[in-house]
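All the exercises in this workshop are built on plain-text protein records. Sequence and backbone structure share a record, each on its own labelled line. The structure tokens are whole numbers drawn from a learned vocabulary of backbone shapes. The record below serves as our worked example for the rest of this section.
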Amino acid sequence: MAPFEIHGVFDVLAWIAAAGMAAFVVRWRPLSFPVTRGHRQSYFAALVAGSAFGAYLFGTLNLWMSGMPGFGRSIEGAIFGGILAVEGWKRIEGVSARTGARYAAPLAIGVAVGRIGCYLSGIEDFTHGVPTDLPWAHDFGDGVLRHPVQIYESLAMAGFLIVYLWKIARRDAFWAENGFYLAVGYYGAQRFLWEFIKPYGPVVGQFTIFHILSGALLVYAIAMLCSGARTFGRETITA
């Protein structure tokens, strides 16, 4: 199977895993989704459009900054674009309630599964790490042993998912109310670290475009966690 086909298969598996996890968590521990039915179509349209635009914009910019031609996609770009689009939609529609509670677990498992596809796609996927002599280094097809950063990220997000589900099982109101922001902040923090062992071209000093996005996601998450807005109360996890 060609690298593009492998990546495509795991993209589909990631979406299936995310959708399945979302359905499971909502049925297991119902989480509020304060978007009226009349607004849901435009809400999801904004989410999808923002995610797609961010994925291709930042994935492509990273390739160009790294001296490579073509067009790329980025899961971090998709997360950033989706958040930006939804926050813009909320401002336009006058929605002040938090709408991300249901997305924490799907985000974590989606990244965990999707990154396995990146790992299996080989050198052409351009998601590998820099050369290393560590015992778990991997040859992505060019004879050079490199950091399998895709696996690092997959394991990191799987670890977050385990903790999140444990907290939800214990009916932890803070994690139920703020799970999405915890997921985004954690994702941004771990991704910021992995960027130091990737071969991407820098944009400011030694920082890549994904360092900047990771920092932005982390700042956003911290700001939302510190804002004191408690849209989802304990009643959201009593079922």
In short: Helices lie at 3-28, 37-65, 75-93, 104-120, 149-169, 173-194, 209-226. The chain has one domain: 3-237.
